[in-house]
Every structure is written in C-alpha cells, then in structure tokens.
Amino acid sequence: RIDGVFSSSDYPGATVAAAIATRLGLPGSPPETIIRCSHKFYSRIAQQEAVPEATPWFALLDPADLDLSELQYPCFVKPVKGAFSIMSRRIASQEELQAFLASGEVAGFLAQYLEIFDRLVANLTTLKRGGRYFLAEELLHGTQVTVEGLATGGRVEILGVVDSLMHAQAPSFARFEYPSLLPAAVQERMVDISRRVIAHLGLTDSLFNIELIYDAAAD
After folding, report:
1. CB-based contacts of 173: which residues, under 8 Å, 6+ apart?
2. What CA–CA distances, in Å, run from 163 to 183, 207, 208, 215?
C-alpha cells in the first residue's frame, strides 16, 4: 500500500512527485500549485496579491521580445526558474541588460536547462508562461533569512527561521544558522507573511521555505 510520494529535490522532483500523487489520489498539492510556488513570476504575482506590503517591485522579461519601457535601474535580474543563483545578477543600465540577455550564455541556459521545466508546465498546468523568461526586481538590502515550514491539513506550521549566509564570491548560499539573530518581533512578522503567502497559494501536504530580507534601516 502506498501512503504518499515525495522527493528530496525541488526540481524536477517535487513537481513529478506532485503529479504522481495527484494521479494516484494520494495526499499532496497538485503539480500546478508546486510550479506556481517555484516559478518566480507566478510566485511574485501570488505574493503581490497576498502580501503587497512585503513584495518588491518586479517585471517580467522576455529575451525573445524585450520590452524595457517599465524597468528601473539598478535592478536585480534572475531567471524565473533557476538554481544556485546561476544567471542572477545586479544590472546597472539598459545597455548592460540588453547585452546580458543577448549573450550566448543566456541562450544556452534557456535552451538546455529549461527543457524539462517547459514540458512540465505544458503538460501538468494551465499556465501560459514556461521558464524561458527572466524577472527584474528592485534591489533589496539587509539581512536575508529563510522561513522553514510545513503546510498540512489546512494549517501552515512554522518549523523555524534561519539566517542565510552567502558566499563572499557569489550570491549563493554558503550555510544556514539557527536560530536567526533577528529580533523576535521581526521574525513574527516574517512568519505572518509566510503563512499568508502559503495559504494564498494553496500549498498543502508539503514542506516549504521562503526567503525574506529584512532592511533594518527602513524596518
């Protein structure tokens, strides 16, 4: 007897596990919900709906049909579906952004890494946009943490808040430290934000984590 199906990897494991669970009538979120959580553009839309006060400015970038009319510089640019901060960087000007998105490095990333993701989106969801896009968003400053939790039985439970420490040479995680050193009141606000986002997305029977940045100067 099968009670459930899970994966230790978020991509493509979590989406495939969700698809199998859905087809077998087992506990879990539908694959479209998992993809909405991990597709940065659709995730930002859900965040904007649920917690507009905590969502940075963002804009979708299509390298094949680039519209730069609404962008603000400097900004941070990242793939809507990426890993280990690959292809993520600070962009200072329109010229720098155009050169980056037109590079062979980006073309190779879009053609190779995202093939599986695009197939998952096309076959398991009603979403109109696959993974061959980038997201531009305002620069964030402050202390980065990760809120870890579990959604199950209509509840969103929080396991803890950890400080996320980055490599000095690249914007990628070096390690996590628990408990977070942020003030308890700030962590409580982050927990509330996380609960509202996860509930709005409809995630269930799943672990999750959400990365947040606290700017003490602006509170």
Report:
1. 164, 165, 166, 167
2. 12, 18, 16, 14
Q: What does the buried/exposed string (b/e) look like for 157-196 if buried means 16 or more CB atoms within 10 Å of the residue's CB?
A: ebeebbbbeeeeeeeeeeeeeeebebeeebbebbbebbbb
Rg (CA), the chain: 18
With tokens 């970038």, the residue in question is 61
Separation of alpha carbons 188 and 205, rounded Å: 23
Mean pLDDT of 164-192: 92
Can you tell me the distance from the alpha carbon of 77 to that of 75, in angstroms, rounded to the nearest whole number? 6
pLDDT tens-place string over residues 156-170? 999 999 999 988 887
What's the Cα-to-Cα distance from 73 to each of 97, 138, 162, 204, rounded to whole Å? Answer: 10, 8, 30, 37
Q: Please answer whether residues 18 and 30 qualify as being in contact, where contact means their C-beta atoms are separated by less than 8 angstroms.
A: yes
Report yes or no: 77 and 97 within 8 Å, Cβ to Cβ: yes
pLDDT bracket for residue 85 (50, 70, 90): confident
